[in-house]
Write a structure and sequence with these properties.
The complex is a heterodimer of chains A (about 230) and B (about 220). By secondary structure, chain A is mostly helical. Chain A has one domain: Orthogonal Bundle (MetI-like fold). Chain A is built from 10 helices and no strands. In chain A, about 40% of the residues are buried. By secondary structure, chain B is mainly alpha-helical. Chain B is built from 9 helices and no strands. In chain B, helix 2 packs antiparallel against helix 3, helix 5 packs across helix 7 and helix 7 runs antiparallel to helix 9. Chain B starts with a helix and ends with a helix. The chains are: A mainly alpha (about 230), B mainly alpha (about 220). The interface between A and B is medium-sized, with 36 and 34 residues.
Chain lengths: ~230, ~220
């Protein structure tokens, strides 16, 4: 085994690590933003909103992310009426395509989580809020969503890790993230074990830090839930 | 439209390979998962640590990286072993990677299913004089299978989609077929949409089958 290779692969992989981090954080953030309305629609009383959200989650969760990324990668440049506008150069950038693809995919999973979280909030909470004169929007904003997010928070932390793993697929559409860079270094050096070990270590470190951050947030920002929680916080 | 019909046999072959890779990984991965779960509930502390490390480590690495390690690493290892360039079969490297990943998640599901069985059943079996093998075969496994079914069904749906990753190392699954047809006709978008539709159909069939299976198992055991 050639150990020098560890040193020579570490720097290029570390440079690509920035792309992986950006892809994960942006993909996750936009996924969360888009997932909220999906979740609200899934648990709403409107048949149309519910049906649309169900179709969205079924299609996006029923097909591989890889095919979704490729469809976006080849599909966006077909929107030729946007040619010449300011957003056009972004639409054909692989990194932007990957971020959009990962965000839309994460939104489907997040939507299902949020929808489930909303449905688990006890019905009495909604009724009590309405009796107290809260509007429908206020009930959702101040009563339902805070409780729903508390119950699904650990799953959202999981979703972050899943998005990090999903970001590796961006390498299939020519994004030079850690996985893409590792693969091209392997093609040059033919030292798969050392290179992938360094790549794996980077993902492991990133995932561990993210896990710690989410656990910290959970303990800090969100008090315990359940009976007696109000007095505890 | 004509293009799609022309490439329909290629896509059908690809779909078959997708199912083949997925089913192979399901079978091997379930075996791994059951073995790891039994080790996890055993009294051997080292065995427990070993399977704990297996499940923990595998689940914290991206699936694509595991596929790459087995494919490129397998080729290098085989070449060293036999001298000269020996390329590992992409099918087996891909299936092995997916099996290892599936096994890691399945072990957690089976472990949960085993530990949800009330303690009294173990004691009752001992009092009735059942051997350890009899206890597992006629008392525990049917119940474990029933309790693990929803989790394993879920994991199967994930496996099915993860199987698309093996196309990156050159297995001719439905993704690869779509890429080939898309390149040849210069309309990749069309063929990737067809591939997505094929995955959606396989997923829908799987969801229905799992629901039927759950119902029939429930009728028989509960």
């Amino acid at each position: 085994m050639n150990f020098d290779i560890f040193a020579s692969t570490f720097m290029p992989l570390l440079a690509a690590f920035g792309t992986t981090i950006a892809l994960t954080i942006f993909g996750f953030t936009f996924g969360q933003i888009l997932g909220l309305p999906v979740g609200i629609a899934l648990s709403s009383n409107s048949t149309i909103a519910k049906t649309l959200a169900r179709i969205y989650t079924f299609v996006w969760r029923g097909t591989p992310l890889l095919v979704q990324l490729l469809i976006i990668y080849y599909g966006l440049p077909r929107l030729t009426f946007l040619k010449g506008t300011v957003i056009w150069p972004f639409l054909i950038a692989p990194l932007v395509c990957a971020t959009i693809g990962i965000a839309l995919n994460s939104a489907a999973y997040t939507g299902a989580l949020v929808g489930g979280g909303i449905q688990r909030v006890a019905a009495g909470q909604r009724e009590a809020a309405q009796t107290l004169g809260f509007s429908k929007w206020q009930t959702l904003r101040y009563i339902i969503l805070p409780q729903a997010y508390r119950s699904i928070f650990p799953a959202i932390g999981n979703e972050f890790i899943l998005v990090m793993k999903a970001s590796t697929l961006a390498s299939a559409i020519a994004v030079m993230d850690v996985t893409g860079a590792a693969r091209s270094i392997v093609a040059q050096t033919y030292a798969p074990f050392q290179v992938f070990a360094v790549a794996g270590l980077l993902y492991f470190v990133f995932g561990s830090i993210a896990g710690q951050v989410f656990r910290f947030l959970e303990a800090r920002r969100l008090g315990p839930i359940g009976p007696g929680a109000a007095s505890a916080s | 439209m004509v293009d799609i019909l022309k490439y329909a046999p290629l896509l059908a072959d690809g779909a078959l390979v997708t199912v083949k890779v997925s089913v192979t990984s399901l079978v091997i991965g379930t075996g791994l998962g059951v073995a790891a779960a039994i080790a996890a509930v055993s009294n051997n502390i080292w065995l427990k640590r070993l399977v704990g490390a297996y499940a923990g480590i595998v689940r914290s690495f991206p699936e694509l990286l595991i596929i790459f390690v087995l494919f490129y690493g397998g080729t290098v290892a085989l070449s060293r072993l036999f001298g000269g360039h020996v390329e590992i079969s992409a099918f087996w490297a891909g299936s092995a990677a997916l099996s290892i990943v599936f096994g890691a998640y399945a072990s957690e599901i089976f472990r949960g299913a085993i530990s949800s069985i009330p303690r009294g059943q173990f004691e009752a079996a001992q009092i009735l004089g059942l051997s350890k093998a009899q206890l597992w075969k006629s008392i525990l496994l049917p119940q474990v299978a029933y309790r693990a079914l929803p989790g394993i069904g879920n994991q199967w749906l994930i496996l099915l989609k993860d199987s698309s990753l093996v196309s990156i190392v050159g297995i001719e699954d439905v993704m690869r077929s779509a890429a080939v047809a898309g390149n040849a006709t210069r309309s990749p978008l069309t063929f990737y949409l067809v591939a997505a539709a094929i995955y959606l159909v396989i997923t829908a069939i799987s969801v229905l089958s799992i629901a039927l299976l759950e119902r029939s198992v429930k009728a028989r055991f509960v």
